[in-house]
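for the writeup, i need someone to sanity check this before i put it in the appendix. the sequnce is what the collaborator sent (i think, or maybe the updated version? ugh). structure was predicted straight from it, no edits. if anything looks off just tell me and ill rerun, i have time this weekend
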Amino acid sequence: MSMKPATQEELINEVLHHLQIDPHKRATGLSDFILGAQDGLVNVLGVALGIAAATNDVRIVLVAGLATTFAESISMGAVAYTTTLTDADLYQSEREREYRHIIETPNLERKEVRDIYASKGFQEELLDRIVETITANQDVWVAVMMAEEHKLAPVDRKTALHAALVVGMSAVVGSLIPLLPFMFLSISNSMWAAVLITALALFAIGAYKARVTVGKPLKSGVEMALIGTLSALAGYLVGYILKVPPLP
């Protein structure tokens, strides 16, 4: 059954829907932001609660928290930078290996393409045409093997610095949130307030992640808040167990 050609108005409406109403999400560094912010929130809250429980001294809490904030942000940014470069190097290494394989063992590589598309349900003449089309061009052939066999996507080395900055800065912002109550409240009130505002921040991050990707904002927010808060409370337990006795 042949399809009726689309009218110009229908094409325009579909283009508007594709670009404005339901556009594809662009890479925005969301995962880098979540990594840095969540890590900063949870780690510094754990440090702050542990130090507060052990010393009952706001000044020590702030010093330890700020030291953790800046040391961690630099460390997280460096990890993001080196990880991005490593991923780019891995992709390039495997890509060069695939080029060698299709030259040195073309029959085996062609069979791998056939097996991949046969597993997707293609058969007989259609499968033959797919394999012939893919293997007719080395660049297409390698791209298919990288995506289908190795499950690897290209990584631009130029994004390494951007990833480092996003992770590092979001770690700083996330780390400062649990410390805010200790600047204005008593030590006991600060501990409760820090847990509350950190849980709210984690909930907001989880809900936002679900809204821009896939998932239920409420469920995602609650999960992130619970996991992060429970992890940070481990720091409180350590501080409480190793509590420093008051000076005579």
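DSSP finds nine helices and no strands in the chain. The mean pLDDT is 81.
thx in advance!!
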